[in-house]
Structure formats: C-alpha cells, structure tokens
Amino acid sequence: MRKLLLISFVIHFIQVAFAQVPPQGINYQAVVYDIGGSAMPGIDTYDLILANKDISVRFTILQGNPSGNPIYSETHSTTTDEYGMFSLIIGQGTPVSSSLFPAIDWGTGLHFLKVEIDKTAGSNFVVISNQQFWSVPYALYANSAGSGIESIVDNGDGTFTATYADGTSQTIGPLGWTLGGNVGTNDSQNFIGTRDPQDFVTKTDNVERMRVLKNGQVGINTPLPDSSALLELNSTQKGFLPPRMSRIERDNISNPSKGLMVFNSTDSLMEYYNGSCWLPTYLSSCDDCVFNLSLPTNSGTIDRVTSDTIAIQVNVNQITSPNQTISFFALHNLPSFTTTYFTNDTVNGNGNTTLVVSASIFDEPGLYPIAIQAVCGNSVRVKVFYLTIDSCYQVYINNAVSEYNLQQFNNLPGVGNPICVIVDVTSLGQITSPLATSPAFKEGALDPQSHVGIRNYGVFLARGGNGGLGGNFGAFGNVGQNGGTAIDMSCKTSLLNYGFIYGGGGGGASVGLSTAFSLPFVGTYTFAIGAGGGGGCALGFGGGSGSTVIGIWDNGTNATGGLSAQPGVGGTENLPIPIPLGPVTITINPDVQGGDGGDYGLPGTSGNLVVNIAATVPIIGTINIPTPAITNFPAGGAAGFALKKNNFPLNGIPNGTYQLNNLKGIIND
Description:
ten-stranded mixed sheet, Immunoglobulin-like, 51 strands, five-stranded antiparallel sheet
C-alpha cells in the first residue's frame, strides 16, 4: 500500500485581536511525501514529495484521549506546492460535525488533533497523525472565556449563528450536512455513510431496518443478505410492491432501460422490458404471443322448440405486441347430428368471434362441455362452455295404424303449449289411410311453434286416387281423383327417412261420348260409349259408369296395395260393334281408352276416345255418320304428397317431386 508522510508539522496561534470578534482558527502547515513510490534501497525520499497535487485534508479534534469523543471535524480541499507543502487554517474548513469550531471549550480536559489526507482529492482519507495539543490555543481560550458563546442557532440553510456574551454574533457555514435540508453540498464530502471498511446500518426505534455491507450488498430486515444477491428483502408479513401502472402509462415511459420491471395493472402481469418490447416475466421473445381468452357466459341451453341453435361469443385480448393471428378450435363430444362453426376462424390481435352450435331434434339430450381453444404461436388458452340439450316427448310406432293423428293419439299438448316430440317408426310400423282425402299420418292440433322429428324405419303409404267415372258426356268424361298424402305437417318438422314414404298415385281420367243422328228407315238414333279410369296406387278404385247407364262402357281396374302395388289401368273399347236396326245395320268402330292410374307419387293419365260410325242402308248403301272431334279430355288425378308442408319448415329434405326407392311423391306446401 502506498503511504504518506508528513515531514513538517507547524502550528502557531492566531493572536491578533479585533475590536469585536477575533478570527477563529489555527494555522497549520505541512509537507507531504509519498514514501510508497519506491521500494528500492538508496532512493532518496526527497524525490518522492507529493508536489503540485490536489489533495483533501480532514481535521478532527478529539477530547480526552487519541480515541476520545470527536467534538469537531472539518474538511479542506487544497493543492501542494512544488515542495509538497500546503498551508491551511483549522476552523475555516467545511464542517462535517454538528458542533462548531467556536463552541470548543478549550479549558476543559485534553484535546488531540487527528489529521487525515486523501492524495486523490476524494473522500478516502488515510490517517496521517493523531497528536495532543500541548498548550491550549490562548487566543481561542481567551475568546471563549472572555466573550463567551451563549447560544448557537441553526438557520435551516446549512449555516449556524453563534451569539456571544457581549451581544455580538457570528454566522458560520454553510456546513456540509444538516438535518433540516442542505444546499451547495459536495457529494465527495457530504454524505451519510462510513469512511472505513465497516457496514452502514439504518435503525428506527433502535431496531435495525437496513444494512449496507462494506462490499455494497444491501439487506432490508436482514443483517446478512445472501452472498449471491445485491439486494435482499426479508419479511413474513409484507410483500414486495413494484411500480403499478396501466398499459397506457407503461407505454408512456420514455426510453425504458432493458430489464426495467413494472406491474401491468391492465392485464395483472409482472412485466419487464427486453430492449424491444414489454414482456411478461415468463416470456423471452417479442415473437411470443400472450393473450387473454374470455366468454361473456359459460353455459347455455338449446330447447329444440324455440331454437335449435345457440351463438357463443368468444373474446380475445392480446397483451404482447405487435398483433398476431389467433386461431380458434372447438373440442367436444357432442351428439352426432350437432354441428359447430366459428363465424371467424381467426382474429388478429384483439377482437371476437362467435361459435355457432346447432343441435338436431334427434340428438340425445344431456349436458355437453365444449372446450373452446385459442392458439397463438406457442400460447394456448382454453375456456369451457357447458351446453344443455333439453329432452323432447318420445313416441314409438311399431305396428300397422291407419289415419294416425300424432297429437290426438298421444294426448300431447295442443295450441298454446309448444313442444318438441320425436316419432320413432320402427320396421314394424306401417301407416296407411283408407281414403285419398285423408292423410296417412298427420301431426294434428299441435301448437304451430312446436317441432316434430320423424325418424322412420317403417312404411308410410298414402291412398291412391280413384279412377274417373262415366256420365259426364258434356266434358267427354271425368277427371281422376288426386293421390293421397302420406304425412301432413302442422308445425316445423325434421325428417330422417331410413324406411319408405310414398304419396298416393292419381286416378286415371274417364272418357265418354254421347251422340244422336238420323237414318232412313230408322229415324233418330242416340248412343253413348266410354271407359273408366284406372285406380292410383295404392288401392285406388277403377272408374265405373256411375249412375248413368251407358250402353257401351268398360270399367277401369283397381290398383293393388303394399310397397309393390300396381296402378289400375283404364277401361278399353277397341272392337267393331254391329248394331242391327231393322233393314239398317250400324257399325261402330271405337278406339276408346280410359286413363291409367298413377304409381306412387305419380299423376293419373288422361284417356282417349275416337269413334267411327257407318250405316248400311238398303238401296242407299253404306254411309258414314260424322261424330264430334274431341281434342281435350279430362285430366288424370294429381300425384299425392309424400310430405305436405302447409307452409311450415322442413329439415332434412328440400322441396321437389321424388321418385326414389324410399321416397315417392311431392314435398311442398
């Protein structure tokens, strides 16, 4: 270690008196040598004087003994001359003690002077000497004894005013440090702490609260901070509270330093600045995506009456920046017919999407959790929504029934009480009707807001229309009857058809002609001819002549029943018919065909009629008798409905006319 040496030590007392207040001070002069500059024998220490060097000097006056109570201390900043000499006045430096130089009572006890120097002009002082005053400074003692300091007042600005017994006063300062606040301080001389290798301790109520170890470690509520920690806080009752600020306030910090930490009160996160962006403490890259996922509500119900669908709002709020793409997924074990989709599969940054869930009336009721998952980079958030699917009335048809009325047969609630009801038709179920004018199955007087689900493994067979009858010669025949309806709706309906649903076939139209003509030897002759229409599937009757007796007539045939039913065919007249009338013979050559009945779900056809009449008259010979030309024959009956919607919605099958293996007929209103 480098050492300093004071070769010359000179003190003389100021004895010049003034009229009122004598100067307060003791001259001090010394030469400083740096004897640590050379360790080689023979090198003259004269060459090692500390010449032309800025230094700091501290004087401390001790009372009683060399280790006694310091009653006054001050510091000086000065410069040595070319010979290493400096000159100072003790008492005129910057006080670093609370007591003042004029207040020293030189008449009481022994006094010692400790001299310390920092050759770098700093505050790391080295003790150079500690020697006794062998004679009391006369003028100072005389001044103290004669004039007497009666009071010292702290002016609050770093200065003190001493008032003497003779009424005079003197203001000293500013001092380096005061308890009432300080101005003009020098941090190399004015500070709170230690100048030697000792810990600095802060106490309140005589209890240690903080310790700064000599190596710079700090312990709060612990005298021994962990060796790996610069700062350790210890408590079993209180926590560490960092600066709390909103996201906006955080972003307004100007030029945040890398590693700066705050508590983000907007997102309830501890965050640090990594030099480019703010991150939660558990992330390391600005590319990491941190966001919050929330649902305004976490449960809901589909009753399958008022609605088959529920819309679930999903909100995301990205905490890190810049904004990144967040993708959405729904994880669930919903029933097989229930569907889900997001209105937006992704959101950039902050925003929302909607998960739409649509349940089928055929799904099993129950409570179903749906895990709504949002993914952004390596970050995944999940919220669970609990979906309840309400139960419905349940009806089974597993035998042969006719003209089935769902509401009436099962005593279900009617108008004013909307319900959902599932109808399961088993493979043994067969639903028919004896009349084409009556549906095989009708939902009946259910509330129009109800919902019916038909799951069919059986057979719905509508009655076919009857063939047209005879008798309407003015229209050259009669129309066929329309085919019957298999299912007649009275509310919203959903259909799963694994069996057979057949609308009735239309009945064939009848044809007929009645005409009169005059012949020699005979006079006026009238005759009628026609044929009935065939019956539609299933079980439509063939058309007969009706209540009018028609001389030349052929009935239509009946349709058969069952899934393999055959429609009836129209009556036929196509062979020459001779009619002798005395000397005259009339020959009728007909081509008459009644309309055929329609197969399931098909219309009946129109008929056709062409008649040629010839008469053989004696003397005259053969004459042709004209008959009316017929171009428009009555129509066959219309195809029946497989499902008659009556302006209610149908789920499962669109409108149309079907001729499928398991579906035949019209689906429409």
